[in-house]
Write a structure and sequence with these properties.
about 500 residues; alpha+beta; periplasm; signal; PDZ_sf; serine protease
């Protein structure tokens, strides 16, 4: 619900602390500051021991933190990204005395209203935060603060107001780069931290919560690498410094006065601060901002594979020592990975020598590479380690879309054959593999998510075309000492691997 501060000429609404719509990790070198020496660089070498307070740090960095004021023809809408991740405060309770007052600002201003048929079209003024990163006026903020903007201005600490242009935005990481319109080379600025923030490090958040102007809160880095299902590339810092609506796009500083994160989202069952906020790490922000400054948009490397995470059952069924890595379910035909020889069932365990633990981690690493660059993938295939070099393509917006489910075809009623793992299979009349006809309700196969209609294409690494092939593959896995058998399963055109535990036969 919007928190309104009214003036005679315009209305102000603090922009929400919002989760990203992106995908993350992008490519490009880190931001390099090449501004004149006349610039008043702030926030360097000001680290004071926590017991003495943060006053010197705040005095140093605050001049570079700005209030971002955005005019738009549509009001800010309440949106959520997953349970409790707030883009904006939730509605007031039905019996709240202020609910009726705030409801007048919720509907789009051009929407018909029988009670106010002649209501004029109005503009909404949203307020977020940002910070200056160069003496000539480049400013970082969140994409959701400036999206759909018709006019953007920033308010400096001394209350001077400057018009800015939007240089570029990246919805996947929820970052935006602004530039002061007039010629300046004397603006105070801050720099990104070069060292990764560690869990337990102090952080100081400076921003504009609720449109109140420069506000400072302090806390620590609570966790790293948080995934809040905002995008394919989630890699948030979790901080416990108080972050609220209007802090969006503002910086979190370390004790040296360098930016370690861009405040973006809050976790809140109630809408208020509960000590859990999320910031885009400096390393990710730098790579995105560098590209936006250079070209106005962000490009990402494209590998062209469908992936899934491993679990202990799958790792054992595939003969792996652990469940680290990203399992390739299906290479996209004609994409770089397939052209380089990557196959379904390969487990990607490294990119250019850097270890990969999950499918999401692989996606982030690939997205940070430039299109056209070569990457060396460390792969385990059938128990053997090999390296495959792939020349990446450019990721297009629609290449991450999930495949469209296909309507199930009507099947004949052939004789069914039950397997030793509680799955009844029949030959696939429409192609290769076996169709799951039924599953015993209390079987381990059912607990692993297999469903009637699934097509089992492979078992224990080999193709299956008859119930006899399927049972033989299960027996082979058992005789090899495996505690689970791997199944390559297709459902509605989407391929995945399933590890089904095997009962030990005495």
């Amino acid at each position: 619900m919007s928190n309104m501060l009214s003036t005679p000429k315009r209305k102000w609404v603090a922009a929400s602390a919002m989760a990203m719509i992106v995908a993350a990790g992008t490519l490009g070198a880190g931001f390099v500051n090449t501004q004149p020496a006349i610039a008043q660089q702030v926030g360097t070498n000001v680290g004071s021991p926590p017991m003495t307070g943060f006053a010197d740090l705040v005095e140093s960095v605050s001049p570079a933190v700005v209030s971002v004021q955005v005019s738009s023809e549509v009001p800010v809408q309440q949106v959520q990204r997953g349970p409790n991740f707030q883009f904006e405060f939730p509605d007031l309770p039905e019996d709240h005395p202020l609910r009726r007052f705030f409801e007048q600002f919720e509907e789009p201003f051009n929407a018909p209203n029988p009670e106010r048929p002649n209501r004029p079209r109005e503009f909404m003024q949203a307020v977020g935060s940002g910070f200056i990163i160069s003496a000539d006026g480049y400013i970082v903020t969140n994409n959701h603060v400036v999206q759909d903007a018709t006019e953007v201005t920033v308010l400096l600490e001394d209350d001077s107001e400057l018009a800015v242009d939007i240089i570029g935005t990246d919805p996947r990481t929820d970052l935006a780069l602004l530039k002061v319109r007039e010629e300046r080379n004397d603006l105070p600025f801050v720099e990104f931290a070069t060292d990764e923030a560690r869990v337990g490090d102090w952080v100081v958040a400076v921003g504009n919560p609720f449109g109140l102007g420069g506000t400072v809160t302090a806390g620590i880095v609570s966790a790293r690498g948080r995934d809040i299902n905002a995008s394919y590339y989630d890699d948030f810092l979790q901080i416990d410094a108080a972050v609220n609506r209007g802090n969006s796009g503002g910086p979190s500083f370390n004790t040296e006065g360098r930016v370690v994160g861009v405040n973006t989202a809050i976790f809140s069952p109630s809408g208020g601060n509960v000590g859990i906020a999320f910031a885009i790490p400096a390393s990710l922000a730098q790579s995105v901002i560098s590209q936006l400054q250079e070209t106005g948009f962000v490009t990402r490397g494209f590998l062209g594979v469908s992936l899934q995470d491993l679990n202990d059952d799958l790792a054992d069924a595939l003969g792996l020592a652990n469940s680290n890595g990203a399992l390739v379910t299906q290479p996209i035909e004609g994409a770089p990975a397939a052209a380089a020889g990557v196959e379904s069932g390969d487990v990607i365990v490294s990119v250019n020598g850097e270890g990969v633990n999950t499918a999401r981690e692989l996606s982030r690493l690939i997205s940070q590479q430039s299109p056209g660059s070569d990457v060396k993938l460390g792969i385990i295939r059938d128990g053997e380690e090999l390296d495959i070099t792939v020349t990446l393509d450019r990721l297009e917006e629609d290449e991450e879309a999930a495949p469209t489910p296909q309507a199930p075809a009507e099947e004949a009623e052939p004789e069914t054959t039950s397997s030793s793992i509680g799955v009844t299979v029949i030959p696939n009349e429409d192609g290769d593999g076996l169709v799951v006809d039924s599953i015993e309700a209390d079987s381990v196969a059912a607990s692993r998510g297999l469903m009637p209609g699934d097509v089992i294409e492979q078992a224990n690494g080999g193709a299956v075309s008859s119930p006899e092939d399927f049972e033989a593959a299960i027996d082979a896995a058992r005789s090899e000492g495996k505690s689970a058998v791997s199944l390559r399963v297709s459902r509605d055109g989407v391929v995945r691997f399933v590890g089904v535990p095997l009962e030990i036969e005495e």
